[in-house]
Amino acid sequence: MKRDHEKRVALYARVSTDGQTVENQLRELRAVAKSHPEWKIVSTFEDRGISGTKGRDKRPGFDAVWKSAIRKEVDLVAVWHLDRLGRTMRDGVNFLDDLQAKGIDLYVHKMAIDTTTPSGRLFYHVATAFAEWERALLVERVKAGLKRARAEGKTLGRPRVSADIEAKVIALRGKGEGMRKIARTLGIGNCTVQRIVNA
After folding, report:
1. Which end of the chain is more exposed for a tag (fewer CB within 10 A), N or C?
2. 16 flagged as catalytic
3. Phi/psi of residue 191, each to 5°?
4. Which helix (H) or strand (E) is 164 found in, with range?
5. Could you give the C-alpha distances from 91 to 53, 94, 97, 198, in angstroms and in order?
6. Beta strands of 112-168 (E only): which ranges?
7. pTM of the model
8. What is the C-alpha to C-alpha distance for residues 138 and 132, in angstroms, rounded to an integer?
9. In this predicted model, which residue has the larger pLDDT, 95 or 159?
């Protein structure tokens, strides 16, 4: 049973690639919780190897924390950084709006955003706007770089693997090996394996 002044807290962590870990994010959030006696961590949600550009339907951990909040099973959602929630201002603001509609707050550790305060809510909206602006600038820089490289006649993309490696991929896949295991075995990227198998 929830005690007076106690805040039921859900932690959410996400990493974009399988080679990364959510443990660093969760360790810092748990340390923050220890400094807030009123916080009681009641659930932890994770998305591993999933880009922040994916929608909620493609991020099971994010979907689960959202549903938990909508069911009012928590009082506060804590994340390590704003970009763990999504990549656009719309994503961040919509998530906060959903939480606020249920009387639930958001804590963003690395940006010291705490929406239990009016200044925290203002800072959250400003930060989401800057995050989307920064991403738009990055996209424009990448596009400009690709355009310049093409104009200079450079070949873009990863070099193709040898016919021998392609044959090994097909042979291992034929034996029922998983694509990630094949990539590790042959020392090539997952995308390369997928391209060869799906060719």
Report:
1. N
2. yes
3. -65, -35
4. helix 163-174
5. 9, 5, 10, 33
6. 113-114
7. 0.65
8. 10
9. 95
Please give the Cα distance from 182 to 13 (Å, whole number).
28
List, for residues 142-197, the tens digit of each pLDDT value.
Answer: 889 888 888 888 766 666 778 888 888 888 888 888 888 898 888 888 888 888 88
- Choosing among 3.40.710.10, 3.40.50.2000, 3.50.50.60, 3.40.50.1390, the CATH entry for 7-132 is 3.40.50.1390
- Give me the amino acid identity at 167: A
How far is 76 from 96, CA to CA, in rounded Å?
A: 11
| Residue 25 contacts residue 63 (beta carbons within 8 Å) | no
What number is the average pLDDT over the span 125-129? 83
DSSP 177: -
Q: Confirm if 135 and 159 have CB atoms less than 8 A apart.
A: no
**Catalytic hit among 16, 35, 51, 119:** 16
Q: Name residue 111's amino acid.
A: M
Mutual orientation of helices 89-101 and 60-70 as an angle, nearest 10°?
Answer: 30
pLDDT 10s digits, 32-83: 999 999 999 999 999 998 888 888 888 999 999 999 999 999 999 999 998 8
